[in-house]
Every structure is written in C-alpha cells, then in structure tokens.
Amino acid sequence: MPTADLLDEYPGKSDGIELGVTYDQLNNYLEGKTVSK
Questions:
Q1: DSSP letter, residue 21
Q2: What is the pTM assigned to this prediction?
Q3: Tens of pLDDT along 7-23?
Q4: Dihedral over Cα of 8, 9, 14, 15: its sign
Q5: For a Cys staple, 21 with which of 8, 17, 25, 32, CB 3.0–4.6 Å?
Q6: What is the number of other CB atoms lying within 10 angstroms of the CB of residue 26?
Q7: Contact residues for 22 (Cβ-Cβ < 8 A; gap 6+)
Q8: 13 class by beta-carbon count within 10 Å (0-12 exposed, 13-18 middle, 19+ buried)
C-alpha cells in the first residue's frame, strides 16, 4: 500500500486510511479540482 508518510506518528501507515481520503481525492485537491467534503 503506498504511503507518503504524511503523519509522522505513524510511519508506513496508509495516509488515506488515517486521513479518511483516497489518493484520488487528495490529488484532485492538490490539483485544484473539485472535491467532496
């Protein structure tokens, strides 16, 4: 499972699971696209 290790306290843990978002949602947000709340 890919991880960007966005959370220092949990290295190697899926960021999507910890943050409650998918990588597609995160990428869309970073690219300025519309994302659901």
A1: -
A2: 0.53
A3: 777 777 777 777 788 88
A4: negative
A5: 25
A6: 16
A7: 16
A8: middle
